[in-house]
Amino acid sequence: MSKVKVGIIGGTGLDDPQLLLSKTEIDVDTPYGKPSSLLTVGELNGVPVVLISRHGKNHSIAPSQINYRANIWALKEIGCTHILATNACGSLKENYKIGDLIILDQFIDRTFKRENTFYSGLPNDLPGVQHIPMGEPFCEYTRNVLIEATKTCGFDMHERGNIVIIEGPRFSTRAESKMFQLWGGDLVGMTTVPEVCLAKEVGISYSSIAMVTDYDAWRDGDHVTVEQVAKVMHENAEKAKNVLLTAITLIGKQNWDEVIEKNNLCSRMAVM
Ligand code: ADE
Q: Which tens digits make up the pLDDT trace of 144-172?
């Protein structure tokens, strides 16, 4: 059975290294520069785990400035087969309520100034041009683990969610928010893209647990504030942490040989 290693990319309020029982911090470099934070390396119920804080240790890195390529490269280099990401997000629908957890399954990309591939065709990048399939951006098998883990923990959850990723750092206007609803978006966030795409490019099973912190700007007379996002994340962080702990244990119990093989094949076959 292949060894698994789980990378956790901790989003706003969910980047607590206390998740890991035994831990050491390591400083790594990549061909793309430094990742957002030191890598916290440890083990949970016998499963090796590596944690990165997406926005840096003191939430000092804005969404457009996150070195997504360095983060994913660092996790690949250290041997991660899986990534569990956490994301704060706004809700575009009444039934995605504050504090709900969502196991994302689709995204709509509205970002426009991020390095979004390891295969740019430039000399220092990976060789060739890769067109990675994105019909199912998230790993279905890892999504199922997160769904099972969330059910086991007994939390309100949506098994699917289509997230619109905006460039930020500003939040959306009311007009944009209403347009995203018309497009079929369920949620709005700032960091899933290009993270999920880069993970797929290098054959890592990536899945995300998102948490609703606000109703964005579509409700007349109401809009999201940073204060609200921080408050909800603070109040609900334990939920997401419990799901992660349960999911990591479940991942450690499964045989991932076929999935790892499939991921690598998908990555290789996508290069022209
Ligand atoms: N993260 C949390 N809430 C958000 C919102 N409304 N828009 C974009 N990103 C968010």
A: 999 999 999 999 899 999 999 999 999 99
Contacts of 94 (CB under 8 A, 6+ apart): none
**Coil, strand or helix at 34:** coil
| ipTM of the prediction | 0.99
- What is d(CA 6, CA 4) in angstroms, rounded to the nearest whole number? 7
Q: How far is the CA of 43 from the centre of ligand 1 (A)?
A: 31
Please provide the DSSP assignment of 86-121 as one string.
EEEEEESSTTS-TT-EEE--EEEEE--SS---S--S
How far, in Å, from the CA of 190 to the mean position of ligand 1? 7
What is the whole-number distance in angstroms between the Cα of residue 224 and the centre of ligand 1?
Answer: 7
Residue 14 has pLDDT above 80, yes or no: no
Instruction: Give me the catalytic one of 15, 100, 186, 216.
Output: 216
Beta pairing, strands 6-10 & 47-53? parallel
pLDDT value for 117: 97
pLDDT at 259 over 90: yes
- Residues near ligand 1 (Cβ within 6 A): 88-90, 166, 171, 188-190, 213-214, 216, 224, 229
55 labelled binding-site residue: yes
